[in-house]
Design goal:
globular, nine-stranded mixed β-sheet, 433 residues, binds 5'-O-[hydroxy(phenylacetyl)phosphoryl]adenosine, alpha/beta
Length: 433
């Protein structure tokens, strides 16, 4: 454990620390960020709480607040204090711009060192960082954490997959850091090159930045011969390093000395009890550059009740199933792409590559899941394919409680990603057929 004095802190002391940090944060943002002053004044509140429960009465911050203040309007320090700028990946609309002080980078490195240590990393490890370096927080965030832990850090960034495999083999990489979909592409590429990735020195991976299922975890572990842990974060809150799994692989410990997590009901927006699903909301306790108060992530999950056997006292967030804005509503049923994935991946003959295609016929929305068959399946054998398709359709129907069209596609039909995988393709804007 990298910082056991915090990671195993007794809950009472932890909550006292959170309250002290929260009050200092509220006072600070009220003084320095016009958006917060306006929100707190409108809610008729003083920037102070007497207990952590009172946080539930503080207004939320949403992505639109950051958009309205684009690019630097929500920074809480003068630009002379900012030493790094990143931005969110921004799949829709304008990206959020985030700034870090030297102190922020120092704390971020500690938090990411915790992440690598929780995955079993030590200073003896050789870490290949295949998250993208650049405005995306994944590459540099992981980089400084790996160095902080004392690992030999390879800053290869994403892309050039054959080179990833050569480097992994020649440099003796023991830990891989990238998106889970890219880990699968690296495994596939290695095999194409005649290299069996399970025979290399690789023993662990820290994967995140996109939703993935337990079945994908099993697949990544099998194809690479490693232990795969899940890591979560978002630019507006920090980047990676907000929550990470330990070797128990049973939920992501939230770094609660730096972030207060709340799960709120998606309709009422009221906090729900541990164990109940809802939208994840974060308050940053120590961020200086761009602190956020009750930031609505749009990510859906729940707190795993109970304690973890690893000894960490930080509560665990269950694997993230999807964002509320990725949610599809198919004939009235809410569906996340990750549920489709979970249904698919137990089926023999199907590869872990799929895409949900939305189109429009007349005024009707059509949904089709395209699923790649495994290379060992004979794609020309109609009967085999038809049986497989029926099986896939049945599995998806039972996983989602709604039936969706399924098209089996040839191996490698679905475009691979070197970063975040694109699971939903929306052709509806291209007009009716
Ligand atoms: O993806 C930060 C990150 C980098 C996390 C590397 C982990 C590893 P953004 O680009 O701002 O930041 O995207 C944040 O990605 O709100 C989630 O919807 C999704 N996400 C991140 N990690 C996970 C995960 C980075 N482990 C958004 N599981 C978040 C599911 C994830 N979704």
């Amino acid at each position: 454990m990298f910082q056991p004095e915090y990671e195993m802190m007794d809950r009472e002391r932890l909550e006292a620390l959170q309250l002290e940090r929260l009050n200092s944060l509220l006072a600070r943002v009220y003084e320095t960020v016009p958006t917060y002053r306006r929100k707190f004044d409108a809610a008729d509140m003083v920037p102070h709480v007497s207990s952590l429960d009172e946080l539930a009465g503080v207004p939320f911050t949403v992505k639109d607040d950051l958009r309205a203040a684009y690019p630097y309007g929500m920074f809480a320090v003068p630009m002379s204090e900012i030493v790094r700028v990143h931005s969110s990946s921004g799949t829709t609309g304008q990206v959020s711009v985030v700034g870090y002080t030297a102190g922020d980078l120092d704390r971020w490195s500690d938090l990411m060192a915790r992440t690598f240590a929780a995955a079993g990393g030590t200073r003896d490890d050789v870490v290949q960082i295949a998250y993208g370096y650049g405005l995306f927080t994944g590459g540099l965030g992981a980089h400084y954490g790996s160095e902080r832990l004392g690992c030999a850090t390879i800053p290869i960034s994403g892309g050039n997959t054959k080179r990833q495999v050569h480097v992994m083999k020649d440099f003796g990489t023991t830990i891989l850091a990238c998106t889970p979909s890219y880990a699968l592409l690296i495994a596939e590429t290695a095999r194409d090159m005649g290299i069996d990735p399970t025979q290399l020195s690789l023993r662990a991976g820290v994967f995140g930045a996109e939703p993935w299922s337990e079945n994908t975890r099993a697949e990544v572990e099998r194809q690479l011969g490693i232990t795969a842990t899940d890591i979560y974060g978002l630019s507006e809150v920090l980047g990676p390093g907000v929550a990470s799994e330990c070797e128990c692989q049973c939920g992501l410990h939230v770094n609660e000395d730096h972030f207060i997590i709340e799960i709120v009901d998606t309709e009422t927006l009221q906090p729900v009890a541990d164990g109940k699903f809802g939208e994840v909301v974060f308050t940053t306790l120590t961020k200086e550059g761009i602190p956020v108060v009750r930031y609505r992530t749009r990510d859906i999950s729940r707190i795993v009740p109970g304690e973890c056997s690893c000894g960490r006292t930080f509560r665990r967030l269950e694997r993230l199933t999807g964002r509320s804005d990725d949610m599809l509503i198919i004939r009235g049923v809410n569906v996340f792409p990750s549920q489709i994935e979970q249904g698919l991946l137990g089926i023999k003959g199907v590869a872990p590559h799929y895409q949900v295609v939305l189109s429009r016929r007349g005024s009707m929305d059509q949904v089709e899941v395209q699923v790649e068959v495994s290379p060992e399946v004979n794609f020309d054998e109609v009967k085999t394919l038809e049986r497989l398709r029926a099986r896939v359709r049945a599995e998806i129907t039972s996983a989602l409680a709604v039936s969706i069209g399924v098209r089996l596609v040839e191996p490698r039909f679905i475009q691979r990603s070197e970063g975040k995988a694109k699971r939903v393709v929306d052709l509806r804007a291209e007009g009716s057929e």
